[in-house]
Amino acid sequence: MKQFSYIRATGARAAVRAYAAATVPAMYLGGGTNLTDLMRLGVAEPELLIDVSGLPDDQILGRRGGGLRIGAAVRNSDAAAHPLIRRDYPVLSQALLDGASGQLRNMATIGGNLLQRTRCAYFQDVTKPCNKRELGSGCPAITGDNRYLAILGHSDLCVATHPSDMAVALAVLNAVVTVEGPGGQRTIPIPGLHRLPGADPTRDTVLQPGELIVAVDLPALPDAARSVYRKVRRRASFSFAVVSVAAVLKLDGNSQIRDCRIALGGVAAAPWRATQAELALRGVPATEANFAAAAEAELSAARPLGENGYKVPLARDVLVRTLTDLAEAA
Ligand SMILES: Cc1cc2nc3c(=O)[nH]c(=O)nc-3n(C[C@H](O)[C@H](O)[C@H](O)COP(=O)(O)OP(=O)(O)OC[C@H]3O[C@@H](n4cnc5c(N)ncnc54)[C@H](O)[C@@H]3O)c2cc1C
Ligand code: SF4
User: Fold this and answer.
1) Which CATH number is 293's domain given?
2) Looking at the predicted structure, is the pLDDT value of residue 58 above 90?
3) Which of 71, 89, 277, 330 is a good FRET partner for 260, with 20 to 30 A between their CA atoms?
4) Is 289 inside a domain boundary?
5) Which residues contact 27 (CB under 8 A, 6 or more apart)?
6) Nearest CA to ligand 1 atom 52
7) Measured in angstroms, how far is the CA atom of residue 193 from the centroid of ligand 2?
8) Backbone angles phi, psi at 56, to 5 degrees
9) Is residue 274 part of a domain?
10) Spatial separation of the C-alpha atoms in residues 191 and 280, rounded to whole Å
11) How far is the CA of 2 from the centre of ligand 1 (A)?
């Protein structure tokens, strides 16, 4: 591992100033559960770590007018167990609990979870080319082992998926991220934070260098009390999503769908908001046939790779089962 210096930031502004003043490549450090692995592998080589895991942004607070503000330094386990998140945003609590292991969730922060890097095996192996690490070097996954990679939104340069379960849940909760940067604060909605690879897979998000996530805001969302996260993974103990579904469903008294928000995980480089499925479902009866038609509408855009064609029927089936169960729980 390359040698590095370490400082502990005392506040968000101080962290951003330290980044701006750095004369060597710097990175923020949350719980370190992803970044230190990447440093050991030689994928990330910061010469200065600015520890933001102890910032005062480590609380979950009610917002004036409703909703919650989750500080970026809040640990994943604390967010998952928070009584208001469990009651009002169960999809988020479930997604957090479905991620990693208990020990990792105790370390991992909300900010770091959002910005963790893809688990594409080639990305993590510096002996292999990878356009995400070095643009122009190539993408061996396109013709290689792509069993767990993207079926939607990928480009000729990169077919990686985003690993965060939490981000998929946030995509159906109208969540907004607040970031502090050299020019002050700005807000970014999710979806909107993560980007698809396009012509530049090196950039996972729309964040500019030195921007620090300080909080995630959840609006008051009464419908979200009926929400769910379902994840298919290779083993039950801890494993990244092969396919996952986050859904919020609002029915009227006649079991017609008044509103719904659906996102897929494990299928793209960003949480995939299923807008075609949502469109197909608004105003129709909550039946398995309609859920199946909506899933087909969404997945007609899928472009599976050589080894991951199974993800298309898997995503369809998980989507239909999840929505059916959610409707029946009404
Ligand atoms: C064995 C294993 C299994 C896992 N399984 C899952 C899983 O199933 N689902 C899942 O979702 N995750 C899983 N994870 C990933 C885990 O959730 C992430 O490693 C964790 O959430 C990252 O948070 P962190 O605070 O440790 O981030 P760090 O490792 O500290 O940082 C990650 C990135 O975020 C940046 N960063 C950190 N905080 C900020 C901030 N406030 N502002 C700007 N940049 C910041 C860092 O510079 C770095 O680039 C797994 C991890 C392991 C090791
Ligand atoms: S899929 Fe993306 S991350 Fe994986 S090898 Fe290709 S360019 Fe790299």
Assistant:
1) 3.30.390.50
2) no
3) 71
4) yes
5) 35, 44, 46, 48, 49, 50
6) 100
7) 20
8) -65, -10
9) yes
10) 20
11) 20
